Amino acid sequence: MTHWHILGAGAIGSFVAYRMHLHQRSYSLLHHHQDVEERVVVDGEVETALVAEPLHSLKRGSIEHLLLTTKAGQLLDALNLALPYLSPGAIIACTANGLGFEEAMRGGLSGRMLYRAISTAGAYRDAQNRVHIASLGRIRMGAADGSTEAPHWFCDSLEPLEEWRWEGDIARAIAEKFSINCVINPLTAQLRCHNGELLQGDTPGPDLVALCRESEPALRALGLWSGDPALLDTAVEICRQTALNRSSMLQDVIAGRPTEIAYLNGELLRRAEPLGLELPINHALVNALR
What we know:
By secondary structure, the chain is α/β, with parallel strands linked by helices. It has 2 domains: 3-168, NAD(P)-binding Rossmann-like Domain (Rossmann fold, 3-Layer(aba) Sandwich); 173-289, N-(1-d-carboxylethyl)-l-norvaline Dehydrogenase, domain 2, CATH 1.10.1040. The chain is built from 10 helices and 13 strands. It has helices at 11-22, 75-82, 102-107, 152-157, 170-191, 206-221, 231-241, 248-255, 265-272, 280-289; strands spanning 3-7, 26-31, 38-43, 46-54, 63-68, 86-94, 114-119, 122-125, 131-135, 139-143, 164-166, 199-200, 203-204. The strands form 2 sheets. Strands 8-9-3-4-2-1-5-6-7-10-11 form an 11-stranded mixed sheet, with helices on both faces. Strands 12-13 form a two-stranded antiparallel sheet. Helix 5 (170-191) crosses helix 10. The radius of gyration is 19 Å and the shape is globular. The model has no long low-confidence stretch (mean pLDDT 94).
């Protein structure tokens, strides 16, 4: 059975480790800077303590499969810390939101392929650093080369987890999630609200309408949003489905942690600038949440 080292004992890393624990998959949950010996995961009325090991306790070259579950801004530092412990043929995957970090990541992989995973799972940490499972959601993983067949290590370790799926066109899936994250996450962070509070009954609130109307033309021009439904319609549906969820950006703001705004709306602004597109609402959000 494939053994995964999960680097990042935050909400998503603990969520993945907990699901592997339940399905009796082989894993190690790692941390690299905080003094953490365990992570308690709360799933309804059940609390499970998971062991969290320090990265430096591993033997050099011993990691064959690494899942990076840190935020986008911490990815490169986490990868650099993990490099001495990677085997020459190690498989590396990351779950971070956003775009704009891939080239820097690949530059440090020494020819190894970087796999991406995108998640709609809901998990958050409370004041006691316990991780609460809000919803299983779905996690899609894929390769940059568009491989349609799932590799053996995915089939024997991740596919048995009910929420994991192999995605042949991961680039499109990432682009769509990027687009949705750009219009939901920063608004919930700025307004300090749950996803469902961006709606007014069955209709979108004015902030969501304004941001979608500004962002969709730029996202379409950049090839990041190509679906038939309007961006606003899709955002409304997701807010309905995840009404009680707190976005990861809102969680970061509440906890006083850096947000991923630079890899979402900041990256949208960077890519839109050569097209001469002005996006004042996006600018204001980036300035407020940077």
